[in-house]
Structures are given as C-alpha cells and as structure tokens.
Automatic annotation (TrEMBL):
The keyword Aminoacyl-tRNA synthetase does not apply. Residues 38-68, 78-107, 123-152, 153-183, 257-286, 287-317 form the 4Fe-4S ferredoxin-type domain. This is 4Fe-4S ferredoxin iron-sulfur binding domain-containing protein. It comes from Methanobacterium lacus (strain AL-21). InterPro entries: 4Fe4S_Fe-S-bd (IPR017896), 4Fe4S_Fe_S_CS (IPR017900), PSI_iron-sulfur_center (IPR050157).
Length: 342
C-alpha cells in the first residue's frame, strides 16, 4: 500500500508534470552525424534535367523527374522527386549529379566529397584496399608530407596533395595494391576494357576440353599472347603505356568464372533450361541441350541444378607480364569452391 501511495505522490509533484510535458531527446540522439546518409534532399533550383539520377537509381520507382507548370514570366522548374517508400538511400543519385552545387544531397559520402573529385593530372594513384598489406612503405617513400596517410586501418592517398610522381607504386611490394589510373580518354578506356575481357573469355572458351579435366585441387595454367589484344587496342587509342596500364589493372583483379559442358554426361533432362535466368541454355530435338556462351552469365545456377555432373564450374585468374618482349598473360584455372555433385 505504501508503495502505491509513493507512486501517486511522485506523479502528483509539479516538477514531474513539468518535466513530462517538456520532455525532449538528448541532442546527441536528435542530431544525425555528418556521415549519416539520409533520404536525398532535392534542391530543385540547381537541376538541369539531365536525368542522370533516374538512370543511376537501382530501386524501381524511387525517383522520377517532374516539371512545374510554366508561369507568364518563366518556365517551370524540372527536378527530381524522391519516393521515400522506394528509396534505399544508396546515394547513387547524389554521386552522379553533375551540377555544382549538387541538386541532390544525402549526407557526407566519400564518393562525392570535393577532395575526391580533384583531377590535377592525367594520371592519379589509388590504393586497392583488397590487396594492400598495410606495410606502409608507400607512406615512408612519399615525397609530399601527409599525401599518403592511415585512416581507420586503411592506407589512403589524398588526391588533393598527391603530385603523381609514382614513387609509391615503385616501392609497393604487392603487385596491384597501388594502381595508376588514367583520368583522360575515359570512353576509350572503357572500350579497351571490354575488348580485353571479351578476348580473354574467348581464349578460355577455346580451352574447354582441357579445363573440364581438372580434378580436386589441381590447377591448369597456360599463357595467352597479348600482342593481338594490344594491336586491336591501338585502333581505339594510340598510347602503348596507357594500354599496358589498362591490361595490368584489369588482370590484377579480374576473376572470370568458367562453365564447361560434358555432352557425354548430359541426359537432356532439361532442368538447366528451366533454371537459366538469361535464356542461354536451349533444347532442340536435333541438338539436345545447348549452351550459348555469348548469353551465359556464368552464374553457376545450371551447375548447381544439374544432377548428373555434366556441367563444370571453374575460376580463372590472370597475371600480365608486361615487361617481357612477347607480352604474355598467364592464366590459372581451378575448380570453384562450390560443392561438386557426384
């Protein structure tokens, strides 16, 4: 009984009633930090109606362009509208927005901060965190103070201070951990990248009969001459150093998935035909089940579906020997880590 009376007494106090009526969250809880990526905020007066935001958005119906009605004195604004029920707050729209100031903002994002978009020279150096071993030799070698620094256990190059001397690249003990990225001729570089990847895929497809004989932990390796690829690349861009850099940067990280097909084991059950998401596998009464390599996504669904082990799934990696006269790309292929059907 006494405890009930005590609670009634507490609730009846004037100070309690005042505190209850004026209750507020702590400032630390109410104020989001700068790094918090909220729903995009639209500043429609800056919009140029280019549509880059709608093209970049990965969420259906999350963003669309609208136009205000024209008045007697001026045309109506065209600007993006965000649907918060569809938006996933990825920040892509703000990243690709070309206006300055930005039409779309959504909190601090390392992809859209000014100091990461400065382009002082034709070539800049970046650190691949996936390959970096944090030895810090690049930091000791750097001729510019604080141009290379450590942040959150990652080695970072400050593009606003880097003079692109390349000393860090020469010092780095891990191939590919520091990359020289050309920031000119971007469209030509994209064409060369597609050319090289398509060329490597075609060479690997030609090795199908040898690849499908790989067993267990065995590794199949062979060399591909890059001379033909370089000649084709020169038709797009006549710059051998840039072409060499592109091929090297691609092969340092490129990992191609390889699908093989054993017709002798295939029973034409057609389970793979139904499961293929890209329509790359077809069945005809004349040829049976046939895979079209040009349509194949190498997603491994057919490999995991086939109950007879007719389909093989492998991983290939590459090493470009750019300093050798014959310009070879060394290829290694091994079985994937996915379980193998018996």
């Amino acid at each position: 009984m006494s405890s009930v009376i005590w609670y009634l007494y507490e609730f009846a106090r004037k100070s309690w009633a005042e505190n209850f009526a004026a209750a507020k969250s702590d400032k630390e809880i109410m104020d989001a930090p700068d790094r918090f990526r909220n729903f995009p905020e639209v500043h429609k007066e800056y919009c140029i109606a280019c549509g880059a935001c709608t093209a970049a958005c990965p969420a259906p119906m999350a963003i669309k362009l609208v136009r205000d009605e024209d008045s007697e004195h001026e045309d109506g604004f065209t600007y993006p509208v965000i649907n918060n029920r569809g938006c996933i707050r990825c920040g892509f729209c703000a990243e690709v927005c070309p206006t300055d100031p930005k039409t779309l903002t959504c909190g601090e994002n390392h992809l859209i901060r000014e100091d990461f978009t400065i382009l002082p020279v034709d070539k800049k150096f970046v650190i691949d965190d996936y390959l970096c071993i944090r030895c810090k030799k690049c930091m000791k070698t750097c001729k510019v103070g604080d141009a290379i620094f450590e942040e959150d256990n990652k080695i970072v190059i400050d593009q606003s201070k880097c003079i692109s001397c390349g000393e860090c690249l020469k010092t780095c003990p891990v191939k590919g951990a520091i990359k020289g990225i050309h920031i000119s001729h971007v469209e030509e570089q994209k064409e060369i990248i597609n050319l090289v990847v398509d060329g490597l895929e075609a060479k690997i497809e030609a090795e199908q009969n040898k690849i499908k004989n790989i067993e267990g932990s065995d590794v199949y390796s062979f060399d591909i001459s890059a001379v033909e690829l370089i000649e084709d690349a020169r038709k797009i861009l006549d710059d051998d150093e840039l072409i060499d850099d592109i091929i090297e940067n691609i092969t340092d990280r490129l990992k191609l998935r390889v699908i093989t097909w054993d017709k002798d084991k295939c029973t034409n059950c057609r389970l793979c035909v139904k499961e293929c998401p890209s329509g790359a596998i077809k069945y005809t009464s004349e040829e049976g089940v046939v895979r079209n390599p040009d349509k194949c996504l190498r997603c491994s669904i057919c490999y995991q579906t086939c109950p007879f082990g007719a389909i093989g799934y492998y991983i290939s990696r590459f090493l470009y020997k750019r300093d050798e006269a014959d310009k070879l790309i060394h290829v290694t292929v091994k079985t994937s880590d996915l379980p193998v059907r018996s």
